[in-house]
Amino acid sequence: MLQKKSLNKVGQIEDALAVIHDGSTLMFGGFGGIGNPPTLIRGIVNKGVKDLTLIGNDTAFPTIGIGQLIKHKQAKKVIASHIGSNPLAGQQMVDGELEVEFSPQGTLAERIRAGGVGIPAFLTDVGIGSMVEEGKEKIVLNEKEYLLETALRADVSIVYAKKADRFGNLIYETSARNTNPLVAMAGTFTIAEVEEIVEMGELDPTEIITPGIFVDLIIQSKGVDWQWVWE
Length: 231
Known about the structure:
Blueprint: H1 13-17, E1 25-28, H2 38-47, E2 52-55, H3 67-71, E3 75-80, H4 87-94, E4 99-102, H5 105-117, E5 121-124, E6 138-141, E7 144-150, E8 154-165, E9 170-171, H6 180-185, E10 187-198, E11 217-220, H7 227-230
Parallel strand pairs: 1-2, 1-8, 2-3, 3-4, 8-10, 10-11
Antiparallel strand pairs: 5-7, 6-7, 8-9
């Protein structure tokens, strides 16, 4: 297993799968499948890991992205902003096979960001008077009521990037960037699947979005499965 903060973090899919186990909390980048790391997800499906808690924007599609883990019933819980593009997730929720915690998209992004920067919780008025407030503490500040939203972290974060150097500095491609930079910060162990791996010093420092200090392992992508969604 590669050591944390190594100067060369390039590894193989087997190294990535070695840190993902039954019952793991897995956070993933992506929006509607775009930006999900497909090689990593296929590896997790093939390994047969089960009882996962998935944290991400959505559940993609049944045959694309993170939705494949839903299709194969490898998740016990999902924390997401919506599941509408994956009817299997909705059916499993109705059948009691999948616990779903909904979080408004902006709130979810901030919960992930908070986890990445070490903020334990924050206040927001989004969700007051709706199902979102169920079971959450309310705080009155300056005569206005807020929900206390807790930060989110994961055992493992998986992200997709356009390019990385061997230390793990990441560059993303246009809208495939989406939630990936936030997710990369919030994992105890972060794995980046990348389209291209270059030597140290080859990346333009002004284009780097995720500093390599947040990344523990890099693997070469075998290609995406969400190109048609993107187009």
